[in-house]
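Regression report. Comparing outputs from two consecutive submissions.

Submission 1:
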Amino acid sequence: MKKPEKPRRLAADRRYAAPSAAAPPSGGGLPPQQAQRRASAAPPRKPRRGNFVTRGVTGAVSLTWRLIWGSFWRTGATLALILGLTVAYYYSTLPDPQALFDGRARGSVTMLDREGRVFAWRGETYNTVSADGIAPVLRNAVVATEDKRFFSHIGIDPRGIASAIKINMAEGRGPLEGNGGSTITQQVSKLLCLGEEFDPIKWKSEAEYEADCRKSSLWRKIKEVPYSLAMEAKYSKADILNIYMNRSYLGAGARGFEAAAQRYFGKSAAEVNAAEAAMLAGLLKAPSYFSPTSNLQRSQDRAAVILGLMHDQGYLDDAQFAEARANPAVLSKAAAARAGGYFADWVMESGPGFLTSETTEDVTITTTFDQTVQRQAERALKRIFDEKVRDGSKAQAAVVVMSADGAVRAMIGGRDTAGAGTFNRATQAKRQTGSAFKPFVFAAALDQGYSPNDTILDAPITIHIKGSKPWTPKNYTRRHMGEITLTKALSQSINTSTIRLQEAVGRDNVRRVAQDFGFAHDITASPSMGLGVAETTLLEMTGAYAGIRNGGTAVRPYGLVELRIKGDDKPLIGQVGGMGQRVISPKAASELIWMMQQVVENGTGGRAKLPGREVAGKTGTTSSYRDAWFIGFTEQYVTGVWMGYDDNTPLQGVTGGGLPAEIWQAVMAEIHEGLPPQPLGVIAPDAAGNMIVASDIVSADSDDPLAAALAEAVAAAQPVDGRVTDVVQPGDATGMPIDAPAIVAASPDGAADPLAAALAEAMGESAPAPEPARLVEPAPSGPPPAPVPAPVPVRSGPIGAAPAPPPAPRTEGSTVSSAGEDAPPAPSPVEAAVAEAVAPADLPADDALNDALSQALQGIPALN
């Protein structure tokens, strides 16, 4: 039988036929030819090694590495993109470099003394300096100190950061505490606060804003990187360095190296030498600590370290290094003096805040300050304390020196001791004045017509106060002298007599006089007011005495003469203070000045004498010796001294006539060195109590012929400023010396003076024979004056009773009494002649007087 034929296979069937069982399965469903080629090309698979544990660990490690590697390059790419965008953003916000030089939020105040010299600064002074305005040695000192790779890095220095971290951890600090490893570019970014402006809502003050900007933290360091890179991309190295050198704070209120060079050395930043450059660069680490005005030696030691860095880095050769080390930088005279600190603070407080302490502009203030007087006063105060006060004493003192018009020339607000602080005891400390208040009591009395020769009782007195216990003042010596003159009562600082006089003239009148002279405005009209229980400052008291010195016109102490914005021609503010209203008459002021002279010549102020100079003043000591004062004046200056403890601890055995008077004398002797002696311009009362004041005599160029002749005659007899300088002082009934007017009938050359003889005859005096080369007061030739009636003791009523009206004008030489009025005085010969001349004529009093005297003096050669 014939076998069936197999079906004929097509070529396509053969090509795509299923593989045989023997065919390798590696084709993966590919066409046979491709599968065969792949199978022949694939290497033989190695048999697996290890168990399932090792294979699992290996797989896990491989997977982790693949994940890390994949995340790293993706994270890096992301961070690089963020950094680039941040740099681009900062780059777009950065202004021109010149706009970043001045980083101050407020302006500065520069103070000039009376001669136009700078003596103090307040706020932050600033002067723009460009790249070519900085000395190369100063630029090199900054780079050597702060960033020696500044010109080679791109804004950050990884090597510097790593080195700083290593140093911090080696010294036991945190990695970012202490040395930060910041480049100059990073420090500039910190100074700029990363471009963030001050926001008063976010920060309470600018100080808090700056402190936050300078805070060192990891996040702050991270933020500095893109900002620094942006600055490096936009600015040149010179621009970045200029921003740094203009914005850096260098102590003592100086912002930038130009201001610091001017402040410390009195020269431009382009003129400093190597030693000065090193000192300025050394301030960058800690401006206040290394400030040469705080501690010059410490600043010089720091500068020596900087010089070593400059030498090591090749900025100084051996010769330059040796010269700079041998000649360390020193302060300029103005900076070394540090004069006027208390005065400058007072001027800042006395001016408007928006132009002084809170000014946004640079301001220049011209003042009354005298640097020479200030140094002399400080030197005198230090000498007295060195000689008279034990070491370590915490006793304080304050001194104010001013002119009679209230212009303050010097001010010492306290001794320079540990813990003294900046508290100004001359302007801020309110203290009881003690007997330094008494001149106001006597001023009120003299202004009402009392005379220095009037008498008053020194005896125990008790004042009954409604609702309180009776008050009995006591004298310092606990003794009483009976009836004494007002002059002696003031010169010996008698408490009981002062209170009697106060009650006689009225407390309200005394209080008004004190307040009008500038004393504290909260004086209580209590019986003890006259003994200085009210509080005031040394500046106010000195100003009140200046009012007495200038003839009874109140003054307001001032230090500011004019204030102007820097660069402006016209001042914004003129003088604040000076002469004010009249308080007492010139006659009363002249009498009071003479009485205060006796305080120094014969009373409690003897230690304040200045040989060859006329001095007037008053001592003051409060209860329990807590405060001691001496305030007085010469023709040139008015000076006040206070001494005490800040905590009100009683002084041990110190009164106003002791150390304060000695300090006053030492200060005044210093500041009067080289000045001509000038009298105070008053003449003592004569036996009748009459006063002659040189300022009352008109000048010789007057339109009135008689007045001009009188002035010429008086000027001839008084060659020194029109005042008598050589006067005999006869004693009064109580034995007290009294200066008498020099009315003579001889001219200075010894020739007969008919005008003086006529005046003497008109006043009831005989004309003595001339004595050449000496001006004397002849002994009275007339009958002795009538005896003065015994005084009636003053008794006061209770507080709240209606004050007694002020007494009517009184006869010179009468006795202080509370009962009745004095009989009207008999007219003098001159008054009678004037009255007779005026009565029949319808002429003004001045014209009638001139006519009468002209007729009486006809025939005198001097007037023809």
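Submission 2:
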Amino acid sequence: MEGTAHDLLRLPLAELQAMARERRDRTRGTTVTYSPKVFIPLTKLCRDRCGYCTFATGPRSLRAPYLTRDEVLRIAVQGSEAGCHEALFTLGERPELRYPGAQRWLAENGYGSTVDYLAAMCAAVLAETGLLPHVNAGALTGPEMAALRPVSASQGMMVESLVEDLPAHRGAPDKDPARRLATLRAAGELGIPFTTGILVGIGERDEDWIPALQAIAEIHQEHGHIQEVIVQNFLPKADTAMRDAPPCSPERHQRAIALARVLLPDDVHLQAPPNLSDDPGALLDCGIDDWGGVSPITSDHVNPERPWPHLDRLAGVTEERGHRLVPRLPVYPEFAANPERWLHEEVRFPVLDRSDAAGLGRDDPGPIFPERVAAAKNVGDGAEVVLIGRRSGTWVSGGTVDPPVLVPGPRGAGPSAAVREVLDGHAEGHELGIGELVTLLTARGPDVAAVAEYADHLRAEAVGDDVTYVRNRNINYTNVCTFRCRFCGFAKGQSSLNLRGKPYLLGLDDIAERTEEAWQAGATEVCLQGGIHPKFDGDYYIDVARAVKDAVPGIHVHGFTALEVVEGARRLDEPLRDYLRRLADAGLRSLPGTAAEILDEPVRRLLCPDKISTDKWLECHETAHEVGLRSNVTMMFGAIEQPVSWARHFIATRDLQRRTGGFTEFVGLPFVHMAAPMYLRRQARRGPTWREVLLVHAVARIAYRGLIDNVQASWVKLGAPALRQLLQAGVNDLGGTLMDENISRAAGAAHGQMMTEADFAELLAPLGRGLVQRTTLYQRVPDSLAVGA
């Protein structure tokens, strides 16, 4: 290894860079991350005196030894309002051991050490703003890091160099190499996601980088906790001992970066600060996959003379080289995906709350604050969660904030090579597998618009430009349910008096009356869904279907989820096929796809453990198709699953459609979090991001090409501005007018209970698309019968 590493240093820079890029691209694809953060310089006092540092300041130059709690929170709130995810606590090492004033301030405020105060401030920022603390407190002991673990998502400390007696480190006892490595090992033993790195150009030789990088690699291979390595270049600063030392040359810095990428394990991310280079693109050429923290509101307190590049510039530089700039959290996705190992239980939900489905940072613009529920009340047709404290301003499904505009995309911005390859292959007739679907479902930047544009092209080919809808009424006949799906805000126990009002059970006469009212209002369909009441036998559903058809023989009965059907057959001890035939004889014509949630068993075991399995859901719909019933595919997404789960769902239902042809449409159902039990219990994300919603609908159009022609968007969960974009991303159907929709409202959705034809027409007006009333099975309603004729 030693000989190989030294041989690498002798390679021409271009050759070493090419090796580094190949390693990076093979393991990271096109993603280059950055952490939107705010700097919180808790104290600039430090017992060390490094020859290059301008951060450390004497007490005479400071108003106070430490920032106060109010000052810390003021900076953190500004960061959260600016859309940051990370609160980077930067501070000097153990100033109380050098400065009596620091020791006195801590004692007067009730703290035994700087680390004690740091832990308290991390806890305050986490609780008040939801920003995820990353602490860079230097060479700490195991107990000190353990004390910070419950209040920080990640920690860090630069190794800098393992060269003994560097002039740059004279007067800095905390820069002792053995001590730095001991900190690195202790972090691994504690399971702390950790950032470290080397500082290049402080008096070391090129050969000295090798033992430092190898030591980092060896410790990581033992514990697996090094999430990123920073390769930082020295630049001289005025008023330091090294003010006259030469800066690290760009070529030398680039060589160190490329060497690090080749020597470090593939699962360690590599970062170089973009503000310390005049040509950030050259850093990408050396194999980095992360830009580090970039703050929209605070300077780099360690290098204040070097301002952060604007994100637009950073995105442009990244895209010029075929990559996509993506926000991340201070803890990387690989660690966030295994919270039991890497995150203290107190920070697991705060990390989840800011995560997208890939474990990266939510990328919708606007502030994200913790949601504190003071109360929840029934508002007649749903739930209203009463929030206290600061309000978030990002788009969420079921919310009232308009989504960011992702389609149409910017002109001239083409897709990446990876996305182009998938789309071109599909256009030539290749059916996409799981990996290819995930590539599309995780698209970023210009790739999102490219996927949407291709999906809309397929939509025009399959169904033309008309946008369809159905006149229907929801009849949720009971909200009492024996099942306990963790996401459901609608169902309740028989005696429960909680968010959604009192338990109820409609009688057959009530159902018939509501059906007649719907027919008189022009509805062609009733949609029947409810809880699994403990007193139901399987004949209840047959009686309901018969009551509807007896009341209005001409209406389409769309009802009963696969869970209700399977449970009804089970309670009668009747074969599923026979039971479905009896339902059809009673008037049932199609089944909704709900109860599918996500057809991926590992997720279902967490989401709805007592519900029917993936195989049973598929069996129910296949049997229904075989006896002449139709159904649709739904997918709830944005709670706890990952994009690979969406891909598995698409493939399982696509395979069934190929066998039966019985599905009429795909309906995406974004998770509405506000009153969902699992969110209130801090066990789910706050729904999908807008980018994820757009991609799920677009990729559904692509995945089902030639098999399912109709893709529907749920206006109840999304609202009109979102629908306009989805109608340019493969969607062709608006679903139903949905008189009396209660299930989404019970989860906290704010988009009302009914859409009229005038509402739909207003939504379509800017797009120039025609509105057509359809039946449940996508036949056009004759003009003489259509509403408004």
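Expected: both submissions complete independently.
Actual: both completed, but the second showed a warning that disappeared on reload.
Relevant detail on submission 2: The chain has a mean pLDDT of 90.
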